[in-house]
Amino acid sequence: GAGVSQSPSNKVTEKGKDVELRCDPISGHTALYWYRQRLGQGLEFLIYFQGNSAPDKSGLPSDRFSAERTGESVSTLTIQRTQQEDSAVYLCASSSGGSGGDEQFFGPGTRLTVL
Amino acid sequence: GNSVTQMEGPVTLSEEAFLTINCTYTATGYPSLFWYVQYPGEGLQLLLKATKADDKGSNKGFEATYRKETTSFHLEKGSVQVSDSAVYFCALGGSARQLTFGSGTQLTVLP
Q1: Number of CB pairs < 8 Å for A and B?
Q2: A114 has a pLDDT exceeding 90
Q3: Best mutation target, B7, B47, B99, to test chain A (most A CBs within 10 A)
Q4: Residues 37-56 of A with CB under 8 A from B
Q5: Min Cα–Cα distance to chain A from B88, Å
Q6: Residue B94 clears pLDDT 70, i.e. is over it
Q7: What is the predicted pLDDT for the residue at B91?
Q8: What secondary structure letter does DSSP report for A75?
Q9: Lowest mean pLDDT: which of A57-66, A92-101, B5-14, B19-28?
């Protein structure tokens, strides 16, 4: 079956503009995660959705970042008033359960460049 | 909080050499431990995992043993191939559902 897909694959924007990144998880996966990967670094957790529960937003770096998910399907990550330090690869992952021991399946990422 | 410390890279080896990439962790409770791999131009994918102490995860000739006494999960392979060239990430999954990742180790295997 299809894996996790993300769009766009690349996004170049000017400082101060808003951007919206999209993630389509694997069908049937109840858990969805957003991570950020800065150049040469590991992944930083941003936000987690599990079914219809309130999302865990503890990793969002500022109030310029927000995310939504409709039921158990598509999620969008929005960054308002982008800054140069927001440049990174944004990765989405999904898993069939919400346990810390579950395998997470990753999408190819969206490379964001803020000029 | 949870944290993962991973061997700094880059690591360059000749084909058929022995590989060790060190990983240690700090966590509360009983986390699950993972190694993820990112091949050039591809997305992150699970290589192996272990969910409790003394478990050994293995896949594609790679192995890692969950050592609670030393809080470690070192990745090993007895004979690396050129096709193993990739970035390897150690990760921890605990009571918080998200994974905590190490900084990654770039491995290059020369023919």
Answers
A1: 68
A2: yes
A3: B99
A4: 40-45, 48, 50, 56
A5: 10
A6: yes
A7: 95
A8: E
A9: A92-101
Contact A42 B42 (CB under 8 A): no
Give per-residue burial for A43-56: e unless 16+ CB within 10 Å, then b.
bbbbbbbbeeeebb
Beta strands per DSSP E along chain B: 3-6, 11-14, 19-21, 23-26, 32-38, 44-50, 56-59, 62-65, 75-77, 86-93, 99-101, 105-110
Give, for B25, the enclosing helix (H) or strand (E): strand B23-26
Q: Which residues contact A19 (CB under 8 A, 6 or more apart)?
A: A11, A13, A78, A79, A82, A112
CB spacing of B97 vs A103 below 8 angstroms: no
| pLDDT score at A1 | 55
A17: which 2 tokens?
Answer: 């503009």
- Give CA–CA dist A68/B53, Å, rounded: 37
Query: Does pLDDT of A98 surpass 90?
Result: no
